[in-house]
Each structure stands twice: as structure tokens, then as C-alpha cells.
Predict the 3D structure of the following.
Amino acid sequence: MPARIDHPSPSAIVVGGGVAGLCLADKLSAAGIRVTILEKEEKVGGLARSLVHGDFVFDIGPKRFHTYSPSVENYLHEILGRAYRTIGRKSSVYFLGRLHPWPLQTSSVFRLPPLVLARCLVDLFRKPRFDGTSFSSYILSRYGKTLYQVFFRDYTRKFCHEDPEQMHEAWAQGSIHRAIIDKRFDQGSLLAVARMALLPKRAVTRFLYPLGGMDRFHEALAARVQRQGGRIHVNTPARLVAGQGGTLIVETPDAAHRADRVFWTAPITEAHDSLVGRGPHLKHLTLALFLIEARRVCDDGNQWTYFSSPELLISRTSYPRSFDPGLVPRDAGSIVAEVTVPEGGSVQWDRWEELVIRDLHEAGVCRHEDVRAVHHARIPYAYPVYELRYQDALKRVMGDLAAFPALVLAGRCGKFWYNNMDDSLEDSMQIAARELTAWRRSAPA
Ligand SMILES: Cc1cc2nc3c(=O)[nH]c(=O)nc-3n(C[C@H](O)[C@H](O)[C@H](O)COP(=O)(O)OP(=O)(O)OC[C@H]3O[C@@H](n4cnc5c(N)ncnc54)[C@H](O)[C@@H]3O)c2cc1C
């Protein structure tokens, strides 16, 4: 536990109660800082919260903890105690009309159509050079034309609503690392994929899942913040207003707050728009989630599956039972189906629901007659999109916000960062340590 700062204790407002905001509030309140979290949703957890419908608990897509950081690992154990499951990963990709294990395995390589396999083998020896910037060039130079065409190009178009040539190579690195998770799986080139696929024995990636659902983690963390004197206001959207001399006022529907520091984990574009005015374009994606209750256990045997085929609307499915059987009533099934739309775009819930059910039926995941109920959830700012010139735009936005010394940007949305929960946690720990050191240095002797 950090040493307490007891002299007139500084105050902090944390905007956003996702894992980044909760962890910041935990570390700061443990050191005696007066912390208030302002969260616009009805509960904390952010992109990692669970969506509950009766006896069915759904996550926002597949959610699991995996980290290489000893400090994050210790932190997870400190918060979860023994209330977690350790699960071996099982995930897949659906392309060319069938499921293939992901990361690819020997069996799936030999199940590729012979022409595709032959073209992949030729690609091993004939790959174009990387142009130094674009997603498409990066993928072509690493995986060759065939895998680019049969999987990466279509998946990226469908998922990002963007031409792969207009995407930055950082998207390739981010998305492939996100999809693979485990550094032991080198799938960063066609040769590495071929080597991994032909390995007779494969390591299994293990991850942690809180017993009873992801909300158990956020609830435990929120309870700790409150025990340490921190306050949490849900249903409280916050907006930044510039005060005099670079100071900040945080406006909520019924109050105006001031604090020594404002930790902003909400979308960076919101902070920029309200403090500076409309800034350079940073594109986000909204997730349209179809949360499906099924009459019987119905899934494809995986925890999650990517769908690249352009004729299917869904881009990914996940199956709560495979994370924790307690998330689904006995003998029933549940599926989370994801469709992305550009931020602010419209979602045609009824028509898309029919298409989603059709996709699941055709892919052999769940027969349409087994669907019992479908719930909808719109998740804004689910992904930052790394377009070709996003780094210039981000630099300008961050530069403008640097005029407000009390403002600290943190978390996935606050930093426009395609990250995982462990990244948000580690970053928040580092920010809290840095801020506490600065406060201690400035404290009267
Ligand atoms: C589909 C999907 C699957 C994922 N799977 C995994 C996984 O398996 N493992 C993993 O580690 N990570 C995964 N991630 C990433 C993970 O969800 C994020 O890294 C993490 O949740 C980010 O936490 P955060 O606190 O930084 O941001 P957020 O969760 O975005 O928190 C920001 C908070 O700010 C609130 N907010 C926004 N605007 C305002 C406002 N104006 N006023 C007040 N509050 C506001 C939001 O409601 C939210 O609670 C996944 C992400 C997605 C979208």
C-alpha cells in the first residue's frame, strides 16, 4: 500500500469508471487522496462491464484477463482473491465456408482448398515489400496475397468500414496481437504461421476469468475504492469546461466540480471538443451487440470465433458458457454476436437481427428455431480506428489538451489506444505512482 499523503489532502476527479478509472481511484484513495469517480452509465466497468438479462450474463464480446506484467498479475489476484477460473484458450476463424482453429493448426492448413494452399506456398517465396505505412502493405509483405485476400482484407473492410489501404500498419500489429494475445505464438508472418501450424505440440494460452462474470472484478474494485473513502457517482455524465488560466471545471447535470487533478478516461475527442472545439478527425467504431438466449446449449465449441466472409453481417461471436457455465441457465445456451458501425452510425436493429440469426444458422452455430430471445446493446467508442494519418491527428489533439496542466489522459478512450484491460490497469498504476510522487514532492515539509 502506498504511503498516505495526510496534509491538506489533494483532490482528484476521475471521469469514467472503467478498469482504468477504477484502478486510478483505488491507487489514489489508498494514498489518502480525495477521489470522486463520475460515470455516465448506470454501473461501473466500462467496455468490460457485463450486461445482465434475467439468468443470462453477457460480456461485451469475449473478455478475459491475460498479462505479462507481474504487477498487473499481482493486482488481479489481490482484487479477485480466489474467485476466478483459469481457462485454456479455444478460438477460431470462419472463412471459406468453414471453421479453422486460431492460431492456425496443422489440421486447418491441410483443410484449406488445394488451390488456396498451393497459392499460400507460392506466397512464401514471393511477397511484396512493405511501403512503411499502410495496413494492406504490411499484411501483404508478411502474409502474402492469398491470406490477405481470403481473410485479412475482407475482415478489415467489414470490421473497420474502411479500405485496408487507408488503414495504418499499427492497426495490423494491434489487431493481430489482440487476436493472438500470447507472445509465445509467433503468427507475425506467413512463414511463422506455417511454422506454428506444423508444430506437432502446441502450448495452450491460459487466461483468468472472474467467477460469476466480469462485473465481479469491477464490483470488488469499486467496493475497495469506497472503503478507502472514494466516492462513486453513476448515471453521471461529465463534461469539461475551461476555467481561468488553464484550470478545469467538471460539469455534471446538477453540479460543477473542481479538483487539483482531473483524470479523463472518457473519449479524448469529447475532452477536445468541449475544451478547444472540434479537432482533427479521430475515428471510432460503435459495437451493435446481439445478445442471444438459446433453447439449448449451442455454440461452435470455441470461446470466440472471427467471421471474415463479406456475405455474413457478424464479425465475431462469443459464448458465455465457455468462460463460466454459471453465466447461462443449465441446458440453455447464449451467444454474443458483434456487428460494428462507424461512430454515430445508425443500427437497423430489426433487420440486422434477422440477418444475425441467419448467419448463425448458416455457419452451423445455432439453428434459428433454437433462438429464444434476442437483446440489443449499443456500445459507443468500442474501438479507436487507426487510419493512415491518425498519429498526426492524435498528436495535434494531445498538443491542444496539454494547455490544461490539471488534465491527465488515461485509459483506452482517454488515450485513443487499441489496448486490453491489462494495459489500462498497468498504465493507471504508473500514472497514479507518478502523480503521488509529484504530490509528495510539492507537500509542505
Ligand atoms: C469487444 C471487445 C472485446 C475485448 N476483449 C478483451 C479481452 O478479452 N481482454 C482484455 O484484456 N481486454 C479486452 N478488450 C479491451 C478492454 O475492454 C479495454 O481495454 C478496457 O475495458 C478499457 O478500460 P478503460 O477503463 O481504459 O476504458 P473504458 O472501459 O472505455 O472506460 C471509460 C468509461 O468512461 C465512461 N464515460 C464515457 N464518457 C463519459 C462521460 N462523458 N462522463 C462520465 N463517464 C463517461 C464510460 O461509460 C466508461 O465506463 C475488449 C474490448 C472490446 C470492445
Observations:
- The longest helix spans residues 135-160.
